[in-house]
Every structure is written in C-alpha cells, then in structure tokens.
Amino acid sequence: MRQQTIPPRIKWAVDLMDVQPSDQVLEIGCGPGAGAEAICARLETGKLFAIDRSESGVDRTKRRNQKHVDAGRLVVRQIDLATLRVPVKRLNKVFAFNVNLFWVRPCEDEVALLHERVVPGGAVYLFYEANRPELVPNIVKLASENLMRGGFRVSVVEQKAPPVIGIIGRR
C-alpha cells in the first residue's frame, strides 16, 4: 500500500489542538483516517475513540491506522454521535473536521453528551474547510450558538492557507 500523507489542513488542526501523550480524545466523523493518524502519532498512554456513521469511513480509518488499533491507542466504531456511549468517563478533547451536524440543525442532545464527557478545561474543536467563504459566517454563527447553548465558551480561529475555520468550545 502506498504511503498516505496527512493533508496540511488536518496537520494544522491537530497542531492547534495540542494533543498530549495521555489525552483521551473523541473524533467525530473519522472518514479516511488522516485525523486519527495525526492524533494517534502524539498519544502514548492516551487513546482516540473515532466514530463515523459510514461503514466505509470506519473501514478506511481502521486500514490506514492498523498499527494504532493493534497498539490499543485507537478504537473505531460505526455509530452516530447521538447514540454514542463513550467508553471512558472523561475526554480531554473532541475533534471534528467538516462535520455538518453542528451547524445544519439544533443538536442539543449531542452537545449535552459532549459537555457531560469533556473534562473541565477540555475542549471541543470543530474545524471546517473555508473554501466557500460565503458559508463561513453562517457556519461560525450556528456552530458557536449550539456550543454556547450547551455550556461551552467559544472562540474562533482562522487559517488562510489552506483556508480553515476552527470553532473551539472550552468547558
């Protein structure tokens, strides 16, 4: 199998999250597994729980990150966030890249689950490619409102190249 690279937008997002070796992380929408690869490379005693509603996303993440699965740093499940029961009581960080859930509809139950599981001082990191600038204000507004209603303090960061918006909800 050919070596897969981690896209610069994912590298930037994971760098911004500052994953620590013992962090307990949840990734929502693991897709092709690039985020999982970047996060797991930083973990030692910590663990990443990656979920996706898509069977193909789960399969791709497992294949790409088999060494991390084998090492016990990565658990991948096909499940929707609304029905997730996180296998650890507390999470340090939550990572999602281009997950529409947080800005396309109210998501009180999902945000409440995250607020319950993220430790004080921990954070939810929602990243979106900003290659359609006309959508960015709406994404930022709606995702921020959903997180704030759920009890998170929100800040927004932006990277120009590649264009990425980060909405960070701190507990």
What is the name of the CATH topology?
Rossmann fold
Strand order of the largest sheet: 3-2-1-4-5-7-6
CA-atom Rg in angstroms: 15 Å
Beta fraction of the residues? 25-35%
Q: Determine the fraction of residues in helical runs and give it as a percent range.
A: 25-40%
Class per helix and strand makeup:
alpha/beta
> What is the CATH superfamily?
Vaccinia Virus protein VP39
Distance between the termini: 41 Å
- The pLDDT mean sits at 93
Number of domains: 1
Largest sheet entry: 7 strands, mixed
**How many strands in all?**
7
CATH architecture: 3-Layer(aba) Sandwich
What can you see in these coordinates?
By secondary structure, the chain is of the alpha/beta class. 35% of the residues lie in helices and 29% in strands. The protein has a 7-stranded mixed β-sheet with strand order 3-2-1-4-5-7-6, sandwiched between helices. β6 (153-159) and β7 form a beta hairpin. One of its GO terms (molecular function) is methyltransferase activity. Keywords: Methyltransferase, Transferase. Residues 25-122 form the Methyltransferase domain.
Summarize the structure.
With 171 residues, the chain is α/β, with parallel strands linked by helices. Helices cover 35% and strands 29% of the residues.
Feature tags:
171 residues; 7 strands; alpha/beta; Rossmann fold
Topology:
Blueprint: H1 8-17, E1 24-28, H2 34-40, E2 47-52, H3 55-64, H4 66-70, E3 74-78, E4 91-97, H5 101-104, H6 108-117, E5 118-129, H7 136-149, E6 153-159, E7 164-170
Parallel strand pairs: 1-2, 1-4, 2-3, 4-5
Antiparallel strand pairs: 5-7, 6-7
